[in-house]
Specification:
Number of domains: 1
Structural class: mainly alpha
Number of helices: 6
Length: about 160
């Protein structure tokens, strides 16, 4: 019986390790094809786009996708740039409907192989969190913690 417990534990460990290796490295190009701010403040909403790229990297359900697009719109709008917020939102909305996708910019692009628009499992969520906590991604710590907390709230 003890052998069986060890064997199952080892299988769980290796399946978890293999799953974590199925994550692509996180990359951002900020506001894909759009400006990150105004002439006076060129990085004004850049952080909003980085957060949105984190959500696109992680993936999840269609509801998660909609929430991430709304968060982007709200974030950009909170900088006082409501017109840019609307334009960016329309861009990501219609980009999501397009049959043509920019390679590496589709929903759930962090996974090497995973069905799109499925809710993240608990294990996948913890794999993402572990990756973010152990990788040197040069992300703002406050942004990273906020994203991790949002991911954890999806588990409820």
């Amino acid at each position: 019986m003890q052998f069986l417990v060890y064997f199952v534990g080892i299988l769980f460990f290796f399946s978890h390790a293999l799953k974590a290796e199925s994550l692509n490295h996180f990359k951002t190009d900020y506001c894909t094809g759009y400006v990150e701010g105004t002439r006076q403040k060129p990085d004004l909403w850049k952080h909003c786009c980085v957060e949105h790229d984190l959500y696109f990297w992680a993936g999840g359900s269609k509801k998660d996708r909609s929430k991430s697009d709304e968060r982007l719109k709200t974030c950009v709008s909170s900088t006082g740039q409501k017109m840019h917020a609307e334009l960016i939102f329309l861009g990501v909305y219609f980009g999501g409907l397009s049959p043509f996708k920019i390679r590496g910019k589709q929903w759930g692009n962090g996974w090497k192989s995973r069905p799109s628009y499925e809710k993240l499992t608990e294990l996948e969520t913890f794999d993402i969190i572990h990756f973010l906590e152990t990788s040197d991604l040069n992300l703002d710590e406050k942004l990273k913690l906020s994203f991790i907390n949002q991911l954890k709230s999806r588990l409820d």
